[in-house]
Amino acid sequence: MSPRDLLLESFTVAVGAADPLKVVPPHLPKPPAGRTLVVGAGKAAAAMALAVEQHWPAAAPLAGSVVTRYGHGLLTNRITVIEGGHPVPDEAGRAAAASILESVRHLGKDDLLLVLLSGGGSSLLSLPAEGVTMADLSLVTHELLRCGAAITEINTVRKHLSMILGGRLAAACPAPVLALIISDVTGDDATHIASGPCAPDPTTYGDALAVLTHHECRIPDGIRRTLQNGMAGKLPETPKPGSAAFAKTENRVIATNHHSLQAAARFFDEHKVHGVILGDSVTGEAREIAKSYAALAREISAHGAPWRPPVALISGGECTVTVRGDGRGGRCAEFMLSLVNELQGKPEIYALACDTDGIDGSESNAGAFAAPDSWARATRRGLAANRMLANNDSYGFFEALGDLVVTGPTRTNVNDYRVVLVT
Questions:
Q1: CB count in 10 Å sphere of residue 133
Q2: What is the pTM of this model?
Q3: Which site among 161, 176, 216, 266 is 20 to 30 Å from 199 CA-CA?
Q4: Fold of domain 19-127+162-203+238-255
Q5: 161 CB contacts (<8 Å, ≥6 apart)?
Q6: Residue 22: how many CA atoms within 13 Å on its side-chain side?
Q7: Which tens digit of pLDDT belongs to each residue from 203-241?
Q8: Could you tell me which CATH number the domain at 257-422 has?
């Protein structure tokens, strides 16, 4: 198997370890005495809903709706799948969230609310708080995505501009709640995944305003007023840890980035390559993280330390990109372009970085691949890696080389997958 095929297959294995059709069924509860309402949101929502349908008793009542990103839907029979805007919320997501919240409020004590959550749920469950317009919510989301804010910071803001996130969905439900969650955040804390619609929220209105201020985001008047009113006690806070609202709620994480990294490591070991997991919680600017990985790969290649080749350096987590140029590309492709720029054709090193949802940022690719000849091929085509990196044009760089990785929607999401192979 060629190095390229080996890396691509390892990504397939990593994604497969988080396949909703595999990870959801073992966690399904017994049907309640009453009815079961299924709701949910995220890039994996449609596949999770299909998994529920395939394994739910035919005679047991089952209904509900989930909202997923455009192009991520699947054909279901008992659970309605709705498509909406991501990463910037839109009216379809708002309408779906409003309908979900209303249906949850009509459950009884003998019923069950089964919530299916995965990454992307924050924007898909876009039900703005009173006084916040969809236009203002979209503007702030766009600002946060461009400024390099961490996902936990972004979700702190989202929770305090929403009627359904930050534990408010569970708080509105009279019935027991079981949330099955595919994690796309470092640490796998339910409060951060899809902005925690069923989880206690330790953050405050003040925290949300501080995030926007720190990153120098444009803040529409309606949003500033909402956050300031919340800080003044004029609006109720999100339900906090210890709240009685969660007495009948369980948040259960059923798939994580680390599970997928472990599956990839086993795959490499089976192919006589030492798989080393460097961590599932790598954060920071993608281009800066790549510099550290390049230094480690050079050390292994030149000195056989701290591991002797062949070795695959595997990691996950979620890097960020502060957009300063006008190019195209997500965090995985930016990591790869920075890596190519650092290595400049080191002969024994290959690499791949992809988002497990199949979408790198807002582009059509999952990520990118690099080989020892990437630098030379780029130079022959007049592509200056350093200039394109400065312009945030990683997509253009790898598109020109034919080294974008395009998978289409995977319908799961356990964050980024990176591997540097030293042969």
A1: 12
A2: 0.94
A3: 216
A4: Rossmann fold (3.40.50)
A5: 128, 129, 132, 137, 140, 208, 223, 226, 227
A6: 12
A7: 999 999 999 999 999 999 999 999 999 999 999 999 999
A8: 3.40.1480.10
